[in-house]
Amino acid sequence: MLSEKNVSLLRNELETAKNPLFFYDADGDGLAAFLLLYRIHREGKGVRINTSNVNIQGMRKVEELNPDKIFILDVPVVQQEFLDNAHRPVFWIDHHQPLQLNKVSYFNPRIKDPDAYIPTSRMAWQISENPADMWIAMIGSLADWHLPDFTQEFMAQYPDLLKHNDLTKASYKSKIGVLMKFFFFIQKGPSNEVHKCIKTLTRIKSPYEILNQETAQGKFLWKQFQKINEKYEELLKDAKKGVKGGRILLYHYSENQWSFTANLANELMATYPKKVVIIARSKGGEMKCSLRAQFRISGALEKALQGIEGRGGGHPNACGAVIKEEDWSAFLSKFKEEIKNINIEV
User: Fold this and answer.
1) CATH says 242-339 is which class?
2) Is the pTM of this model over 0.85?
């Protein structure tokens, strides 16, 4: 969590910003963090980051929008070259593996506690504290597979959206879980449609506008979500058909329009808690993968990548990897060997 001093500092920096620029990771946690901070003063612009990396290419947006301050949210990597060329204050709030960089005000709970697991949206909620936006903070936390410390308070305020203080049920057996999926899926599709969805979402006052289609804005967003969710449900059904014995649930799909890799991995992990889920999608001669389990697998991934042309990493039980197709079989063989020694306690 952020310290009181850091919360005060960030609130002041947001209050005094005339034209802030928000770079945020293009997932549910990143989107929620952006919404929470943007909706405090409704100033500035948001830019989604699909590569989990703010590099020198990000200067194009800086030059275009000419912000007075830059806030980077839930992005694991920021290149020093970008910071050297930014020439304005940069505030980076994140919860991935800490990095040491210059010319940035960096806020990451894992600097002091390497085992801390606090979604960026939870820290953004510390800064916002707007009761009307608690639903956004809850969605962001669930999107990063985390039940926040205000769950009981949320259940009291929205008893119809969440009835169980259980992560799996909250994510996949509740109405707030539907909205969690919504936060992911409205970020898929043509960039002009995604931009319109997020702009509309900044103006939504209640989760019921979307769930019950109570307003024109809510109806528009729900229609966009349904269009994408139909394709996802087809893939999920297909993935479940291939469940067999053994520790690994492997599903390879070739959907070229949208990537559902992380979402499929998360839901299948919740459904099959004793398995390691690997969702792989081939693109450009590489296998882009999401790996999930309800136990630690990051060490096994790290060892399996040794001698393999590929890269990967992430949280202890939620990782991503990109493997060259010619090394895919070798990687799978090594990974299977590594997870044999993992003691599963679920």
Assistant:
1) alpha beta
2) yes
Longest Cα pair distance anywhere in the chain, in angstroms? 57
Tens of pLDDT along the chain (346 residues) come to 999 999 999 999 999 999 999 999 999 999 999 999 999 999 999 999 998 899 999 999 999 999 999 999 999 999 999 999 999 999 999 999 899 999 999 999 999 999 899 999 999 999 999 999 999 999 999 999 999 999 999 999 999 999 989 999 999 999 999 999 999 999 998 999 999 999 999 999 999 999 999 999 999 999 999 999 999 999 999 999 989 888 999 999 886 667 898 899 999 999 999 999 999 988 889 999 999 998 999 999 999 999 999 999 887 888 899 999 999 999 999 999 999 877 665 4
CA distances 184 to 87, 134, 188, 318, Å, are 32, 18, 8, 16
Taking domain 4-185, whether its CATH number is 3.90.1640.30 is answered by yes
Domain definitions of the chain by residue range: 4-185, 242-339
Cα separation, 70 vs 133, in Å, equals: 22
Residue with tokens 């136990």, as numbered in its chain? 295
Distance CA(315)–CA(320), nearest Å, equals 9
Q: Where does residue 180 rank: exposed (0-12), middle (13-18), buried (19+ CB within 10 A)?
A: buried
